Q: What sequence folds into this?
């Protein structure tokens, strides 16, 4: 792989300040990117199922009864902001800012991720109260196959963040840990990309065609 | 100001620009949906295109994917995955839509 040393994998690159960690990250981060792209295909399948199921409501509650755009808007802003804070955390790491700054930005990211999950779960509970359970119709099965799948990814990201926080504390800023943090940041940005697909296709698409 | 703080500043600005752009697009999308109603013809098409624009903004400013030689492989991978996705999604909609039409269900 012939790539410029300054930029050799997606997402933020550690560069010369962390030369050995940068080197350690190169191949694995590209491999992780391959994984993310196959994850994208999995999400794509769920999107395809949802699109074909939009009309399969068999008299059950549909998008207009179930979707709460205010909550979706709040979730969008939260996730987008967390994408910024994870980037700022990576920059703090890259430029060797005081450890408190790094911890602060990762902490904010974690809090935002958890608040996103709280809002999303509250939405599911509200939907269930309106009769929007997965077994009610093909449309709802497809919805619950896709949106909570993204939620699960966010939950996994939060757990990952906590584990890496502990590793940073116990093992210190070793090349291995730093290179794991690089991949976590990539994963987090990826989740925001999927979320854009979800608001566009699941929520707005559902409201437009459901 | 030494070179590293300068670079830091530049990279941070990049994230903030990406965030501002995404934020703006999000507000416009929800604003359009709220103002005109999602079922007005053309509104959903606009929202879809703005969503696509936001994907590009985040890929460029957050994930640092561009057409520079060094990140070409990542871009190739994205383009290939997109091709696979288009075949999967387009094919599914085509086949199932056609089936629904022949079964005289009013779908899609």
A:
């Amino acid at each position: 792989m012939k790539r410029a040393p300054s930029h050799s994998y997606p997402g933020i690159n550690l560069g010369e300040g962390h030369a050995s960690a940068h080197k350690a990250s190169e191949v694995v981060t590209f491999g992780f990117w391959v994984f993310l792209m196959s994850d994208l295909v999995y999400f794509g399948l769920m999107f395809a199922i949802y699109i074909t199921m939009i009309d399969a409501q068999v008299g059950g509650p549909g998008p207009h009864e179930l979707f709460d755009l205010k909550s979706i808007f709040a979730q969008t802003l939260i996730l987008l902001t967390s994408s910024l804070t994870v980037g700022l955390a990576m920059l703090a790491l890259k430029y060797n800012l005081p450890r408190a700054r790094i911890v602060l930005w990762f902490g904010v990211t974690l809090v935002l991720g958890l608040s996103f999950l709280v809002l999303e779960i509250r939405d599911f509970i509200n939907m269930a109260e309106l009769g929007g359970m997965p077994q009610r119709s093909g449309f709802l099965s497809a919805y619950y196959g896709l949106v909570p799948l993204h939620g699960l990814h966010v939950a996994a990201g939060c757990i990952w963040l906590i584990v890496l926080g502990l590793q940073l504390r116990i093992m210190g800023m070793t090349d291995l840990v730093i290179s794991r943090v690089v991949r976590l940041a990539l994963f987090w940005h990826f989740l925001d990309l999927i979320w854009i697909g979800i608001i566009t296709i699941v929520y707005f698409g559902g409201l437009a065609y459901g | 100001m030494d070179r590293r703080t300068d670079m830091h500043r530049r990279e941070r600005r990049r994230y903030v620009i990406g965030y501002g752009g995404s934020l703006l697009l999000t507000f416009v999308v929800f604003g359009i949906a709220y103002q005109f109603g999602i079922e007005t013809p053309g509104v959903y098409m606009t929202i879809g295109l703005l969503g696509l624009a936001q994907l590009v903004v985040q890929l460029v400013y957050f994930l640092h994917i561009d057409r520079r030689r060094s990140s070409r492989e990542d871009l190739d991978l994205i383009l290939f995955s997109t091709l696979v996705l288009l075949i999967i999604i387009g094919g599914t909609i085509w086949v199932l839509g056609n089936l629904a039409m022949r079964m005289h269900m009013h779908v899609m």
About this structure: Chain B touches chain A through 54 residues (CB under 8 Å). Helices of chain B lie at 3-36, 43-61, 72-102.
